[in-house]
Specification:
By secondary structure, this protein is an alpha/beta fold. It is about 40% helix and about 15% strand.
Length: about 425
């Protein structure tokens, strides 16, 4: 996703896409905040939910609330069909080869922890190496640090440059005979940088090394095809893709999952249990211990339906144009500096203002009805790279408009007045 200020094609795409029509599907957008119309620009933290998702969750609780899989009564059969139907929708959405490759988890964080504790502890040993990058979310750093404490693995880090891009050539130099895994963000939550993941996966495979992608910031904003990418693991969260909180997906190639031990023990993940030993259920249930968040899974399936109605290519192209417009507007403001200027970006505008702490920016623009995120965005190494404590971050979705960007700019004028 290129940020090309002044791109005529993207401007036309932005004009043609009917964002206000989709915005009307989101009940929360009708409210006012501090007496002002809500302008929601915090989508990288969590997205809002369309009525179709809210209705799907409510319908489950009102009409067929029941546990899944083992019941023979009608409610259980309806719940099971909807729950497993959601899994199939997700399989198609990311083009996985089979439903066995779609594991329901609580979100991206749990997905990465699952890989670290199951794949990592069973396949890696002291002295083995894992490659990460400097732009990773804490959820793609801390699980590997925990694994390092448990097994003695070594972590290597791809540095970034001051545009927020992976430094050219640095990735390849980190591979050695002891490299066992690469784990990378598809899109940076703090900078918006879109990494060249297909090429990076290919290089890892040349070294016979599997690669995990943190796709939390990619799946809601662009088409993702895991078979085309050829990634070994892909993790993403429902709540960032217009679905409920508390659920997400770990995709992994089926043979890798077969070779991995269970992550948690309990109901559903077992085939037989005896005191002298137990056997495990088939995939994907082997990794889904206990009663799942059935309603959230059904809601996530509804979110997938909704996104496919709009079309992921259309969303990608529209947000690209909106990012260009937002970039132009922020760059025109005196004293404002965008942090993260990669050539390939998703809809994230992180910035700082001269003489104003990001937390103060967030507080003042909130009074104007504009919701943004401020802080280190769970990416402290990124902040350390740029020698700043935090940024203000406006993050875009397909229901945002140029008017939202204009409202942010006007709110930043208020910030400037306060700190003049």
């Amino acid at each position: 996703m290129n940020a090309r200020p002044g791109g005529l094609h993207d401007s036309a795409t932005t004009a043609a896409f009917d964002a206000p029509r989709w915005r009307r599907d989101f009940p929360i957008m009708k409210q006012r905040v501090h007496g002002k119309p809500l302008v929601y620009l915090d989508n990288a933290a969590t997205s809002q939910k369309p009525q179709a998702v809210i209705d799907a969750v409510s319908d489950y609780y009102q009409h067929y609330n029941s546990n899944v899989h083992r019941g023979v009564h009608q409610l259980s059969e309806l719940a099971t069909a909807a729950y497993e139907g959601a899994r199939e929708k997700l399989r198609q959405f990311i083009n996985a080869a089979s439903k066995q490759e779609i594991i329901f988890v609580r979100g991206t964080t749990e997905a990465i922890n699952l890989v670290a504790q199951s794949y990592g502890r069973s396949h890696l040993q002291s002295g083995d190496e894992i490659i990460l990058s400097e732009m990773e979310h804490h959820s793609n750093i801390v699980p590997w640090q925990l694994l390092r404490e448990q097994t003695g693995v070594t972590l290597k880090v791809i540095p970034i440059n001051d545009a927020g891009e992976l430094q050219p050539g640095a990735y390849e130099t980190l591979f050695s005979a002891r490299t066992r895994l690469v784990s990378l963000a598809h899109v940076s939550n703090a900078l918006g940088s879109v990494n060249p993941v297909k090429e990076m996966i290919s290089l890892a495979h040349q070294h016979n090394v599997p690669l995990l992608l943190d796709g939390a910031q990619a799946v809601p904003h662009m088409p993702v095809d895991v078979r085309d990418l050829d990634c070994d693991f892909y993790a993403f969260s429902s709540h960032k893709m217009f679905g409920p909180t508390g659920i997400g997906v770990l995709y992994a190639k089926e043979q890798i999952l077969i070779d991995m031990p269970p992550y948690q023990g309990g109901g559903e993940m077992i085939r037989t249990v005896r005191f002298n030993g137990s056997t495990w259920n088939e995939l994907p249930h082997k990794f889904e211990a206990g009663t799942p968040d059935i309603a959230a899974a059904i809601g996530l399936g509804a979110a997938v339906d909704y996104l496919e109605t709009i079309g992921m290519p259309s969303i990608r192209d529209y947000e690209r144009g909106l990012l260009e417009y937002g970039t132009q507007q922020l760059q025109s403001l005196a004293g404002v500096k965008i942090v993260g200027t990669a050539r390939h970006k998703a809809g994230v505008l992180s910035f700082v203002m001269d003489g104003v702490h990001p937390h103060d920016i967030g507080t003042i623009v909130d009074q104007q009805g504009v919701a943004i995120r401020t802080g280190h965005h769970c990416a402290m190494p990124v902040m350390e790279h740029f020698h700043i404590p935090a940024t203000a971050r406006a993050s875009l979705a397909f229901y945002n408009t140029r008017e939202d960007i204009n409202a942010l700019v006007q709110a930043l004028d208020k910030v400037r007045e306060v700190f003049r």
